[in-house]
UniProtKB/TrEMBL annotation:
This is Anti-sigma regulatory factor (Ser/Thr protein kinase). Gene3D superfamilies: Histidine kinase-like ATPase, C-terminal domain. It comes from the Bacteria. The keyword Plastid does not apply. InterPro entries: Anti-sigma-factor_SerPK (IPR050267), HATPase_C_sf (IPR036890), HATPase_dom (IPR003594). GO terms for molecular function: protein serine/threonine kinase activity. It comes from Mycobacterium terramassiliense. Residues 20-138 form the Histidine kinase/HSP90-like ATPase domain. Pfam families: HATPase_c_2. Keywords: Kinase, Serine/threonine-protein kinase, Transferase. The keyword Zinc-finger does not apply.
Amino acid sequence: MTADSLTSAAPVRFTRAGAADAVTASELRRALRVWLREATDVCADVRDNILLGAGEALANCVEHAYRTHHRAGTMELQVGYDPAARSISVRVSDRGTWHRPSPKKPDDPRASRGIMLMHALADHCTINARPGGTTVCLNYATHPITLPDNDV
């Protein structure tokens, strides 16, 4: 894509849903990888961050969302690419129950690092937990702004 086509290109979307299980999470992540390569001009580093962040959110759905239910529920992955805004938004949602992480020491090898990882990978991360499910929103700049090299 050229710079001119980026500013005139319409936003594109990717939406998939399925059972909140490991097989579906893997399939969604694989489909997202292909879509990012084919439908966007996102560089490999940002693409890797998106895949890892989305993968963590999907894994949380699989592991935690339906823990108190008798059977697995569903999860949905929605991604929007806006070339003009140079951004990608990722939304992972479920209809399960939020489980507040138990406080652990930062150096505990058994401590989950998924939420911290999502915050570190995305330019902006929000987690909206409500009685009817949880939604994780991750936002990424596709072309980070480079700052001039000033000798101070």
